[in-house]
UniProtKB/TrEMBL annotation, chain A:
Family as reported in the entry's similarity comment: Belongs to the PSMG1 family.
A Pfam family the protein falls into: PAC1
Protein name: Proteasome assembly chaperone 1
Chaperone listed as a keyword: yes
Coiled-coil segments: none
PANTHER family registered for this protein in UniProt: PROTEASOME ASSEMBLY CHAPERONE 1 (PTHR15069:SF1)
Keywords: Chaperone
An example Gene Ontology biological process: proteasome core complex assembly
An example Gene Ontology CC term for this record: endoplasmic reticulum
A GO molecular-function annotation: proteasome binding
TrEMBL record, chain B:
Quaternary structure (record): Forms a heterodimer with PSMG1. The PSMG1-PSMG2 heterodimer interacts directly with the PSMA5 and PSMA7 proteasome alpha subunits.
Protein name: Proteasome assembly chaperone 2
Residues in coiled coil: none
Stated family: Belongs to the PSMG2 family.
Cellular component, GO, one term: cytosol
Keywords of this entry: Chaperone, Nucleus, Phosphoprotein
GO BP annotations listed: proteasome assembly
Cited function: Chaperone protein which promotes assembly of the 20S proteasome as part of a heterodimer with PSMG1. The PSMG1-PSMG2 heterodimer binds to the PSMA5 and PSMA7 proteasome subunits, promotes assembly of the proteasome alpha subunits into the heteroheptameric alpha ring and prevents alpha ring dimerization.
């Protein structure tokens, strides 16, 4: 397309790809075979531990009163520090997937942890890239194997993606989105229009809305480029009740060693905020 | 797969279905937003499919605090019993390798719901028009043979322009080659139309030649064009405000500018 000044620009559409008009019928057999193999390689697979009773592999759905899902650097590290670092968790399942961003051609794995004593809570951290065509399948595979009563999703997102008449301040902020079946009090404002939730949190909360499962997404909008304690601290009120039930140290007993583990991995100078 | 919001599935038999195709400028989706918002339509179900990129948000048509809650998803069905109208809103793009499957999902749902007719709102790249299309109205229509039987008289009266077929290689062939239907930037429009012809569905496509940008005026053009056929509103052209803009259209070009920039 030529502009007013005569430059020729390649036209970009936010809605459709340029080759949308190509029909699949035009593909030959070899193309179809390659696409089928690629499709097969991109399948999301869940492997359950043989130790759990009523394995979803045998057609049962694993009872799960509360699923806590963490998506993104801050959310996953928060869950590591506040829950998993206290011990008492068993790895009960592995979700593996492969896509174009998988390094070393090995499948990326997300681990599902279950609280050893109560069996009430299942925690899953997703810090890997799940491609757009894998989101639906990830959700169907994981949530389809669970008999989940309540789902909480913690997620983080760049503050620049949040649209509001007044720009957000320098501090991170938390917004929520919950299904119609959610009855618990919400500790932060809703995701205001015209903002949306995308990616895995969107796939999970859509599944829960359609299957009448009580679910909430807590999305933290932050300017920080890597995981930091201020952003992670935003999630603390959200899981206060859950932490109380599990008797993990939410009231000032989170170990410094847990935090140092997080920040050493980042090698970024961080102010300790007295979590 | 259609999943109803309530326990029982709504009876949509004999209803007119209006749906957008995700196409250049998102004009169809904007026009459908105007219909849902104006007629205060209620959500009756979702299309749950792996063909669309998942997205979720709060109620895009909410005007009061009480109706703001509950997750709204990538593809939802709304209805209005008074005007016997059902609307499918599609809010996210189709995953590129699953366009054929998505068309099949739509066609089988349309057939199963027994709609009296289906109207698809879409767009096409304005810059790819040929010489015949450059002048006059930017609006075009397409109808399947079974739709033509139903609405031949009405369409004749309206005097609309049918989408022209084009030569595959303009200027290079002697004209003996079969001209083809070409809707660049139209997403699944062409595929849905050809599938509907094959399945003998009464379906019409209304499309607008447009470009990416501020497509709100395009949405009004398309919806008023549709209204001249369906008469959903009386004389909307005299007062554009009769179409109600949903609150989700705010900040379409970004949020406030951070003062720290200056």
């Amino acid at each position: 397309m030529a502009t007013f000044f005569g430059e020729v620009l390649s036209v970009y559409s936010r809605a459709v790809e340029e080759d949308d008009d190509d029909d699949e019928e035009e593909q030959d057999e070899e193309d179809q075979l390659i696409l089928r193999e690629l499709e097969d390689k991109r399948q999301v697979r869940v492997r359950w531990s043989p130790t759990i009773e009523q394995s979803p592999d045998s057609g049962h759905r694993l009872p799960c009163p509360h699923l806590l899902l963490a998506v993104g650097h801050n959310a996953t590290r928060f869950v590591s520090v506040y829950f998993l670092s206290h011990g008492g968790w068993d790895a009960v399942g592995h979700v593996s997937l492969w896509n174009e961003r998988t390094v070393h051609s090995e499948d990326t794995t997300c681990v599902l942890h279950r609280h050893r004593e109560s069996h009430q809570v299942l925690v899953c951290q997703v810090d890997c890239f799940v491609a757009e065509d894998q989101l639906f399948q990830w959700t169907e595979q994981v949530l389809g194997s669970l008999d989940a009563s309540q789902v909480t999703v913690l997620s983080d997102c760049p503050a620049a993606e949040y649209q509001s008449p007044q720009p957000l301040g320098p501090d991170p902020c938390l917004r929520s989105l919950h299904t119609s079946a959610w009855s618990e009090p919400i500790c932060c404002p809703p995701v205001e229009l015209p903002n949306l939730v995308s990616g895995l949190p969107a796939a999970v909360v859509s599944f829960c809305q359609l299957h009448n499962i009580s679910a909430a997404v807590y999305q933290c909008y932050s300017d920080a480029r890597s995981a930091d304690s201020t952003t992670m601290d935003m999630f603390r009120p959200v899981v206060a009740r859950l932490a109380q039930d599990l008797k993990v140290g939410i009231r000032g007993t989170v170990s410094c060693c847990g935090l140092s583990k997080v920040f050493c991995a980042n090698s970024a100078p961080v102010l300790f905020l007295g979590l | 797969m259609f999943i109803p919001s309530q326990k029982s599935a709504p009876d949509l038999k004999g209803f007119t279905l209006i749906m957008p195709v995700v196409a250049v400028g998102n004009v169809g989706q904007l026009a459908v937003d105007l219909i849902i918002s104006t007629f205060d339509m209620c959500r009756v179900g979702h299309i749950h499919t792996d063909c669309l990129i998942p997205m979720a948000g709060n109620n895009p048509y909410s005007t009061r605090k009480e109706d703001a809650d509950g997750v709204h998803t990538a593809a939802e069905v709304y209805m209005s019993r008074e005007i016997k109208l059902a609307v499918l809103q599609i809010r996210s793009p189709v995953i590129q390798k699953r366009t054929k499957k998505f068309r099949q999902v739509l066609v089988s749902w349309i057939k199963a719901s027994s709609f009296s007719r289906t109207i698809v709102l879409s767009g096409s790249h304005a810059y790819q028009r040929d010489d015949r299309q450059l002048q006059g109205s930017p609006l075009r229509y397409l109808v399947t043979p079974s739709m033509l039987k139903l609405s031949e008289e009405a369409l004749k009266e309206l005097g609309w322009l049918e989408m022209e077929k084009v030569q595959t290689f303009p200027g290079l062939t002697d004209g003996a080659a079969e001209p083809r239907l070409y809707i660049p930037g139209g997403g699944i429009t062409k595929g849905l139309y050809t599938d509907s012809c094959a399945e003998d569905l009464p379906l019409a496509v209304l499309l607008l030649f447009c470009s990416e940008g501020d497509n709100i005026p395009d949405a009004f053009t398309l919806i008023n064009h549709l209204n001249s056929w369906l008469h959903l509103l009386d004389n909307p052209g005299e007062d554009q405000n009769k179409w109600k803009i949903p609150p989700s259209w705010t900040l379409m070009f970004g949020g406030g500018i951070p003062p720290a920039l200056f």
